[in-house]
Design goal:
Helix 9 (about 125-140) packs parallel to helix 11. The chain is globular and about 55 Å long. It contains 14 helices and no strands. It is about 70% helix and about 0% strand. The chain has helices spanning about 1-15, 15-25, 40-50, 50-60, 65-75, 80-90, 95-105, 110-120, 125-140, 145-160, 165-180, 185-200, 205-215, 215-225. The chain folds into two domains: about 1-80, no CATH class; about 110-228, Leucine-rich Repeat Variant, CATH 1.25.10.10.
């Protein structure tokens, strides 16, 4: 596809070895990373506009930046379950996974279904995607009821024994975001954190780090002020 080739060519023009080196320091897989700054990716995506077919072509290139642009220009309503499964299986770095979930997957009609499936996966980045989806919905999906997130707290409880770095961080992230949604869920999240602390098999950092933020004066003040 000519337009995909043009975008990839432009991405390569903006490759920065220094940026690539810094990214590696954050645990990002640089095998397929060019080192293009985020603002340039946004500019390229805006210039392109929404285009599902172009997004599919860009994803196939395997380049990290091309995948990120693909997520920006893909159309959520046109993403099939098969395509989502193909993309999530192809994720090889936490930054790509988080971007795809936050920019695209959370906006699809089957986002909640994928939480149930991916959070049970044995594959590190697929499982992380499931928990990142919870965190993203907690932040952006204001229409969802508390009972939905109370169920997700149970999934968090199950995922708290996974010691793999990128999984435990996503479990922690989802717990913190649920707990910042409103006063009631804050209490539920704090209770879940204490449950995790009591379990010998659980990763205690997940709970301790979450409690520090959820009990902080700043979070408590904001929740009380919001009246939610």
């Amino acid at each position: 596809m000519k337009k995909a080739e043009e975008i990839i060519s432009e991405l390569k023009k903006h490759a920065d070895k220094g940026y690539r080196k810094r990214a590696k320091g954050f645990g990002i897989n640089v095998d397929n990373l060019l080192g293009v700054p985020k603002q340039m990716l946004v500019k390229i995506a805006k210039k392109s506009g929404k285009d599902q077919q172009l997004a599919l072509y860009l994803w196939k290139s395997k380049l990290t930046e091309a995948k990120i642009v693909a997520a920006m220009i893909a159309e959520p309503e046109k993403m099939t379950e098969k395509q989502m499964e193909s993309w999530v299986e192809d994720i090889d770095s936490w930054d790509v996974g988080d971007h795809v979930v936050g920019t695209l997957f959370r906006k699809t009609d089957i986002a909640k279904k994928k939480i149930h499936e991916w959070s049970k996966s044995e594959k590190e980045f697929v499982k992380r995607a499931g928990y990142v989806m919870i965190a993203e919905l907690a932040v952006h999906s204001k229409e969802l009821e508390d009972k939905e997130f109370e169920y997700y707290l149970k999934l968090i409880r199950k995922g708290a024994d996974d010691r793999r770095n990128f999984v435990k961080k996503s479990v922690n992230w989802s717990l913190r975001q649920i707990g910042k949604r409103n006063v009631r869920l804050n209490q539920k999240a704090i209770e879940m954190a204490h449950e995790i602390l009591k379990d010998e098999k659980s990763v205690k950092w997940i709970a301790r780090d979450a409690l520090r933020e959820l009990k902080s004066k700043e979070v408590q003040r904001r929740l009380k002020k919001s009246g939610r």
